[in-house]
Structure formats: C-alpha cells, structure tokens
Amino acid sequence: MTAAAPNAIADAAAPLRQVETEVAKALVGQRDLVRRLLIGLVCDAHLLLEGLPGLAKTTVVKAMAQALACKFQRIQFTPDLLPADIVGTRIYEGGQFTVRQGPVFAQVVLADEINRAPAKVQAALLEAMQERQVTIGDQTFALPRPFMVLATQNPIEQEGTYPLPEAQTDRFLMKVRVGYPTQAEERTILDRHLAHNWPKIDAVLNPATLAKAQAAADQVHMDERLKDYIVALVRATRDPKEAGVSNLVGLIEVGASPRAVIGLAQAARANAFLDGRAFTTPQDIKSIAPDILRHRIIPSYEAEAESLDPDRLVARLLEHVPVP
User: Fold this and answer.
1) CA pair distance 203, 190, nearest whole angstrom
2) Could you check whether the bond before residue 290 is cis, i.e. omega within 30 degrees of 0?
3) Minimal CB count within 10 Å: which of 3, 14, 32, 300?
4) Secondary structure letter of residue 276 according to DSSP
5) Mean pLDDT score of the chain, rounded to an integer?
C-alpha cells in the first residue's frame, strides 16, 4: 500500500465514527453493540441480536437508520404472519393486477422477534437477505442499497417459537449478545426518561458516502499469516484433534462453515478500518471471533453436560490456537 493509504483509510472511516457519536445520543452505553452494527454496515451484512426485552435493541437500530439517512422499517414477527406480509403481493384494483411492495423494501429492516414466525416466513426474509431481490408473481425487484436486516430474538422465551435452523442463522454475519447496562448507565437512562430528554439525531452519512467507506475498507491490509490464523481457527471447530486443541475434542458436534472464514476476515478488516488503521492485527480477529462463531458451532451433549456454551468453547479455541 502507498504511504498515503493510512490517511485515506482514516478519512474514509471518519463519517462512520460520526454515526457512532450520533447513535450514542439516543443510546446509553452498549458501545460494543454499536461497534458491531457499524461492522455489519461496512461488511454489507446482516446481524442477529439476542437479548432480553427492554435492552434498547429497537432504539439503537432506529437511531442508526436516522444517522444514516436511510429508510427504516420494523416488522413484528408473529405466528400468524405470512410471507406476503414481508415481501409484498399482487393486488387487483382498477381492473388490473398491481404489485404492492412489503416492508422488506427498506434500507434498514428490523425483524423483531424473528423466531416467533413460522419457517416459511423466516425463509422469505432470509431469501431476500441472501439474494438482495424479491420475486412477486412474475416480477423480480431489486432491494434498495444499502440493505441491512437486523433480526432480534429473546433467549429465554422458547414456548410457541420457531427457532432458526442452523443453515439459516449461518447467513447472519454475527450473532451479537446484548447485555444489561451498568449501574451508572441505568441511572442515566432513568434521568433521561424522567426529564423526557430525547436528543435529536442528525443524518451524518448517506448511501453514497457509505459505499465509498465500504470500498475503502476493502483496501485494509491483512497479512498472509493472519489469513492462515483465521482458517486455523475455523478448522479447529471442525476437527479439534487435528488442530491440536485437545481440550475441545468431543465438545463440538458441528463446526463452523466456510462462511465463518470469510465473515471473520471481513469483520476483522472492518474493525481495523473503524479504528482508522490500514492494517489488521490478531486482536481484531480475536475481539470479533465470538460474534462470528457463536451461532455457527453446535456444542455436543458432553459440552452441554459440562455447561459449556458456544462462548466458552470459542474462548478455549482462542486460548489454544497459536497466534502468529
């Protein structure tokens, strides 16, 4: 890369850091969540957000859409939802059939409680995510750009839900766990609500500027040894014995797919880009790996018996796979 490249990277990342600042006006804390949303934007990918009710998942998504000057749609998933309610349908009016587009024709789509709708509805949304287009009748429509789906699900209420199959969760770049705020943050939230203090969010980024930022992120350098490290991490989830990670043998039923290799590399580069760096480090990979891998590995019965969830398995993986 040329000597000017680091400055060019920092300049291209500056508008996205402004988005982070604007979102912080509406959201108290949750900095890791905001960073991962921005990584999803840079990677032109979709995210699955998992957290209990009341943790501002909808608030942060709406705030980000406002800061991006993008069209936002929220879809509340329910058991009686139909695919046409998502993608749209043909209607007969005025003596002819016309197409009425569904709420998926937006730039930022919040799929709220995606696991409360049946499989055919989930599949309709996930097909749109993958193909970036929707077919209604005999017509095919391209979805707007950028196009980002942020799906949420509640980790504890499983009665009457339709869990996403592993093959479909694999289409999400990251599964981000949203936790409770700190005591100080929760007090700030209380003060804001009692004072009805709702800051105005300014639009600081548009689709054209975002496209330039995405192109600049593609220029972030990744050393060949780091590429080998990413491949080694993912392959170790499939065959820990061959990878020399003996304390994972028998604990992973199904390992991560090749999509994890691609996603981990893209997300690590995006993380470096958002920091204004023109190069990727091992820490970029390690910091984002749990979000990339937690929904792509299935613990074995032995792991469940030892109360080892995917996050703990990934922690063991990162601890024992040699870092270049």
Assistant:
1) 26
2) no
3) 3
4) T
5) 87
Q: Give the global pTM.
A: 0.89
pLDDT of residue 8: 84
76 DSSP assignment: E
Q: What is the mean pLDDT of residues 261-266?
A: 96
Residue 25 tokens read as: 């006006």
Tell me which residue of 63, 317, 50 sits closest to 157, measured CA to CA: 50
According to the model, what pLDDT value does residue 160 have? Answer: 61
Nearest-angstrom CA–CA distance, 6 and 94: 58
**Segment 210-230, tens digit of pLDDT:** 889 999 999 999 999 999 999
Q: What number of residues does the chain have?
A: 324
Q: What is the mean pLDDT of the segment spanning 128-144?
A: 86
Domains and CATH numbers, the chain: 5-209 (3.40.50.300), 220-320 (1.10.8.80)
Q: Two tokens at 209?
A: 């500027």
129 contacts: CB under 8 Å, gap ≥ 6: 46, 149, 171
- In this structure, is the dihedral angle defined by the CA atoms of residues 257, 262, 265 and 271, taken in order, positive or negative? negative
